[in-house]
Design goal:
By secondary structure, the protein is α/β, with parallel strands linked by helices. It is built from 14 helices and twelve strands. The protein has helices at 3-11, 16-19, 46-57, 68-80, 93-105, 125-133, 150-160, 180-193, 212-217, 232-236, 248-254, 265-276, 278-300, 323-332; strands spanning 33-35, 86-91, 115-120, 136-141, 164-168, 196-200, 225-230, 242-247, 305-308, 315-320, 335-339, 350-354. A seven-stranded mixed beta sheet has the order 2-8-7-6-5-3-4, sandwiched between helices. Strands 1-11-12-10-9 form a five-stranded mixed beta sheet, covered by helices on one side. The chain starts with a helix and ends with a strand.
C-alpha cells in the first residue's frame, strides 16, 4: 500500500462532518487598517509595556500554573461584581468556556441528546460548539430590526427544552442590547424547563448596562444564570482569557471538564497586571465609546449605505447595496471590514465595522 493510500484511509477516521467544514479564516492584516475583529486599538504605554515584560520575564515557566489563578479569579469576581456564593472558571478565551459548557451538558446517547438554543443571527461559536460536542442547535430568528422575539423564544424553549440558552448582551454581530424585561421573560421561560442561561457579555466594556446588576438584585430569578465574559475586548485579545461567573453549585460541576492547566502562567499574569491597571482600560473603553456615534453618523451620511443600526458595542452593523463589492473595495484601499452577509438571511448585504 502506498503512502497516499495509507494517509487516505487514516483520514477517514476524522469525522465526516469535520472534514466537510471550513476552518475559521483569519485575514492577513499586515499593513492594513483592521476594522474587522473588534479589537481594542490601544497598546499599553511604553512604561507599562516594560513593566509587564519584566514581570512576565521573571515567571517560572518551567512550572505548571498554580495559585496565581486563584488570585486572578478573585480579582475577576470583584471586577465583575459577582454575587455572593459565586464561583469563577477561567478559559482560554470565552471560546473555550463555550466548549466547556457544551461538554458538560452534552448527553452520550441520541435518545437523550441535549439542545442548545440562541437568538440568531448571533455568535457563530454557539452553533459550531453544539455541532462539535454533539448537541442539537436551535436558532430563533430575531425581528427584522434585530430585536429579541420573545414569543418565538418562549415557544422554542417550551418545545425544545434546551440545556443551554445563550443571550449575547450585547449581541454579535448586531451590537444590540435588548430590553431588560424581554431578556427576563426569556430567562423565566428557561427556569420553567430547568435549563441554564448563559449571558454572554463579551462587549460589556462598551455597553450601558450589565446583567450582573439583576443577578445581584434578584438572585432567586437568576439562580440558573451564568455570566460569561472575556478580556479580549477589554484590551487583551492576544492573551486569550475568558471567564464564567455563576452559582458555585453549577460552576463547580462545569469546572470538572476543564483541562487542569488550560490558562498559562503568562496569560494569567498578564490578566492580573491588566486588572491592576483597570482605570487605564476604562479610559480606553470610554474613548472608543466616544467614537461610536460619530462613526454611525458619518456612515449614515454616505451614499450607498442603506441603513446603520444603533450600537452598544465596539462595532457597527450597516447594510449597503453590495456587501461583497464594498468589502473588496475597502480592502483595496487597505481597510479590512467584515462581510457578515452569509451568516444569516437577516444580514443580507451587511458589513460589520470595528469602532476604534
Amino acid at each position: 500500500m502506498t503512502a497516499p493510500d495509507i494517509a487516505s484511509l487514516a483520514l477517514q477516521r476524522i469525522r465526516a462532518d469535520v472534514r466537510a467544514m471550513q476552518g475559521y479564516h483569519v485575514q492577513a492584516s499586515q499593513g492594513m487598517l483592521k476594522m474587522d475583529t473588534m479589537e481594542n486599538p490601544f497598546r499599553l504605554p511604553a512604561d507599562l509595556q516594560k513593566a509587564l515584560g519584566e514581570r512576565l520575564g521573571a515567571l517560572e515557566i518551567n512550572r505548571y500554573p498554580g495559585e496565581r489563578q486563584d488570585t486572578l479569579k478573585s480579582m475577576l469576581a470583584a471586577y465583575a461584581g459577582a454575587p455572593a456564593g459565586s464561583a469563577v472558571i477561567l478559559g482560554n478565551g470565552s471560546d473555550e468556556i463555550i466548549t466547556l459548557l457544551a461538554l458538560a451538558t452534552a448527553q452520550p446517547h441520541d435518545a437523550d441528546r441535549a439542545t442548545m438554543l440562541a437568538p440568531m443571527p448571533g455568535f457563530v461559536m454557539y452553533p459550531l460548539s453544539a455541532k462539535l460536542q454533539g448537541l442539537d442547535f436551535v436558532g430563533v430568528d430575531l425581528t427584522a430590526d434585530f430585536d429579541l422575539d420573545v414569543p418565538a423564544m418562549q415557544a422554542a424553549i417550551a418545545k425544545h427544552r434546551p440545556a443551554i440558552t445563550y443571550i449575547a448582551y450585547p449581541n454579535n454581530p448586531t451590537a444590540t442590547l435588548w430590553a431588560e424585561d424581554k431578556v427576563q421573560a426569556v430567562i423565566d421561560a428557561v427556569a420553567q424547563i430547568g435549563g441554564l442561561v448563559v449571558m454572554d457579555e463579551a462587549y460589556q466594556p462598551f455597553a450601558s448596562r450589565s446583567w450582573v446588576t439583576r443577578m445581584q438584585a434578584e438572585p432567586a430569578c437568576n439562580a440558573h444564570v451564568l455570566l460569561m465574559r472575556t478580556l479580549s475586548k477589554f484590551g487583551l485579545a492576544g492573551a486569550r482569557l475568558g471567564y464564567l461567573v455563576g452559582p458555585s453549585a453549577i460552576v463547580n460541576e462545569i469546572d470538572k471538564v476543564r483541562p487542569p492547566y488550560n490558562v498559562s502562567v503568562l496569560n494569567c499574569e498578564t490578566a492580573i497586571f491588566a486588572l491592576e491597571h483597570e482605570a487605564l482600560y476604562a479610559e480606553q473603553a470610554a474613548a472608543i465609546r466616544a467614537e461610536r456615534q460619530p462613526l454611525i453618523d458619518a456612515l449614515t451620511a454616505l451614499d450607498g449605505v442603506e441603513k446603520v443600526w444603533p450600537s452598544e458595542a465596539n462595532m457597527v452593523l450597516l447594510r449597503v447595496r453590495d456587501a461583497a463589492q464594498a468589502q473588496a473595495a475597502m480592502k483595496a484601499r487597505g481597510v479590512l471590514v467584515k462581510n457578515v452577509s452569509a451568516m444569516h438571511p437577516l444580514l443580507a448585504n451587511c458589513l460589520r465595522l470595528t469602532v476604534g
